[in-house]
């Protein structure tokens, strides 16, 4: 699987968020994106996934053009900012509701995903009573539960303690070994240095490959 961006430009109104974005990414690799808050990392993920339309240029998945041949990327797992989960439902109940959308998986796969992120699928605590770290873990579980071919993870280790960070980094490595195409954006330098096969810097409305990581 190959995901590419060719001369992509993202605008909000008249403001240029990103310009001349050229990327070529393939399955079985992890691509890291670094940059300051507001640099455009999250907007880039939104554009690559199809959640927003680019102003000009093209985004292709295996030759098929986004917003022409498909509305959004198929077979995608994504975490961007705060997920809108139901506060009164348990983690398992939340993921069960989300799984009904695509009807790809059953309860056993949901339980497996929750266990993989270090939570108990039988925990009866409602989501609203979860700690920040538990919320982050369950959001990652929803991204991986259908074993998607593409994963986009915006700040995947945010709010996690040291053990949690170790767990999630190992999980991301396992997703790479499974053959997924993984994109991560993180302010944690160790996330990038430990996980990424290739690193891009998002700065001054551009996305440039960091040569020393090539």
Describe this structure in words.
The structure is a single chain. The chain is of the alpha/beta class. It folds into two domains: 1-75 and 148-214, P-loop containing nucleotide triphosphate hydrolases (Rossmann fold); 85-147, no CATH class. The protein has six helices and ten strands, in the order E-E-E-H-E-E-E-H-H-H-E-H-E-H-E-E. The strands form two sheets. Strands 6-7-8-3-9-10 form a six-stranded mixed beta sheet, sandwiched between helices. Strand 7 (150-154), helix 5 and strand 8 (181-185) form a beta-alpha-beta unit. The longest helix has 17 residues, at 162-178. The radius of gyration is 17 Å and the shape is globular. The model has no long low-confidence stretch (mean pLDDT 95).
* Rg measurement, Å: 17 Å
Number of strands: 10
Task: Look at the structure and give the mean pLDDT.
Answer: 95
Number of helices: 6
Task: Please name the fourth-level CATH homologous superfamily of the largest domain.
Answer: P-loop containing nucleotide triphosphate hydrolases
CATH class membership of the largest domain: Alpha Beta
Give the % helix.
25-40%
CATH architectural group of the largest domain? 3-Layer(aba) Sandwich
Spans of at least 5 consecutive residues whose pLDDT stays below 50 are none
The CATH topology annotation of the largest domain reads as: Rossmann fold
Give the number of domains: 2
Give me the strand/helix succession.
EEEHEEEHHHEHEHEE
